[in-house]
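U., I forgot to send this yesterday:
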Amino acid sequence: MFIPNILLAIPRNPITAVGLPLALGFLSGTPSSKVENSNWYHDLNRPPGLPPREVFPYVWTLLYLSMGYASHVAATALDNSLLEVNRSDLSTGLALYYAQLGLNCLWSPIFFGSHQPGIALVDSVLLTGTTWYMTKLLDRPTNAKATYYLLPYCAWLAYATYLNAGTWWLNRHRKTTRK
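Result:
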């Protein structure tokens, strides 16, 4: 799979590798803090197991750092790999990395900005599936190093998808209003 040089250059440097998801996560997540204080959000029925909102910035910061470093591990393995099967898995895995990063950045504007938990759930399912498949592809060629950094993210995405699905289900008959 062809990946443009700029998309390979970013994860080759560990600073830019972790900086990109941190910056994108900050930009996409910042507007959600205003919505979390709105009547729309407070009036939502939520599933059991929702942690306090103060937990989310810390968890996401750690997850962005770990996913960024996993991209660095994958890019380094790609640069050092001689086997075509490994190069193919690493290239596809890095392409999926950028795809999941895009899906990740879309979730907050869809859920919080557009007040669309159902559409956000579709995004969350796609994000979770893409990330699990990316992790599977990167496992063997990185000798499981990328997997160590990505498994907490995969687990959190499964949990976040549960929260999103529960929120959608419990509020599916409500009218969507933007305030």
